[in-house]
Amino acid sequence: MSEPHVTCPFCGMEVPEGRFCKICGKPLDTEVPFSSPDAEPQFEEAIESYVPSPEPEKMVLPHFDVTIEDMEHEAAVVLLSRSELEVVDLELDNIIERTKATRQALQLQQADKQILTVRAEELRDEFEKAKSRRRELTTVSAPLVLEKLLDALDKDEERLAKLEAISGTVDKDVYKEQRVEILGALKELQSNLKHAIKTAKQWVKGIKKTLKTLDKEVSRVEAKFKIGDISRDSYDSSIVRLKRTIMIVEGGQERLISLLRIAEKR
Question: In this predicted model, what pLDDT tens digit does every residue of 204-230 receive, in sequence order?
C-alpha cells in the first residue's frame, strides 16, 4: 500500500504525509490538534510546563528594481541575488583599482589635491555602499526548489549505490525493504522534478519577457534624450542603472538555464 501524500503549502511539491516537508523542510500542518478526553491530564501538564520560545526574526529580502514576469517573488530574489553578487564583486574590484590610481595621483607634485581628495571621498562612499549591498545579498542563502530536488536525488542515488554494494552482507529481507524504500523515494523525487522543470521553463519565458521590457526602456530613455526631454546627467544615470539591471537579469537567466540542463538529464 502506497504512503499517503499531501501538497506542501510552501514549495508546492507532492510529499509523504508527516510533520515536515521532505523537500523544503517546512511544516506541512501548522494547526495544533485538539487532545482527546483521555489525554487531557497530559495536555494540561504540557501547557503548564510550556515556555514559549521567541519567534524567529523574519528575514528581510533584498529589494530589486525589476520584477521577473511569471516568477515567484522569493525564487526571483534567490536567482537575482546570486547574479548581483557577481556584479557587486566586479564593482568592488573596480573601485579598489580606481582608489589605488587616485592615491598614486595624489603623490605627484603637479596633482590637483583638492579634486583628487574629493574623488577619493566619493570612491570611499561608493565602496561602502557596495559592501553594504553585498551584505544584503549574502543573507539570501536558500536554494531553489530545483536545486533541492537535484541534491535530494544525488543523496538517494548514493544511498542506493551503497546498498547495492553491501547487498551480499545483509539480510535479504532487510536489503529488499531498504531498496523498496529508496526506489520509492527516487520515484517521488523524479515526479517532483518534472513539475519543477516545467515551472522553471515558465520562469525562463518570464525572464525573456522582462529583458524585452528592459531593452524597450533603454530605447525609450535614448529617444527622450535625443528629443531633449531629459538632461545628459539624467540620461547617463538611467542608462547605467538599466544596463546594470539587464546584466543582473541575464546572469540569473544563465544560471537558471544551466540548472535546467542538468535537471533535464536526470
Answer: 999 999 999 999 999 999 999 999 999
Residue 92 grid cell: 568592488
Residue type at 181 in one-letter notation: E
Q: What is the DSSP string of 130-175?
A: HHHHHHHHHT--PPPHHHHHHHHHHHHHHHHHHHHHTGGGS-HHHH
| Whether the Cβ atoms of residue 205 and residue 70 lie closer than 8 Å to each other | yes
Look-up: residue for cell 545483509?
A: 170
Residue in the structure block whose three cell numbers are 531553489: 144
pLDDT, tens only, 104-154: 998 898 889 899 999 999 999 999 999 999 999 999 989 999 999 999 999
Annotated domain spans of the chain: 1-30, 73-138
Please give the model's pTM, rounded to 2 decimal places. 0.76
Name beta bridge partners: 6.
Answer: 15
Which whole-number Å values give the CA distances from 226 to 24, 75, 93, 221, 231, in the listed order?
A: 51, 38, 33, 9, 10
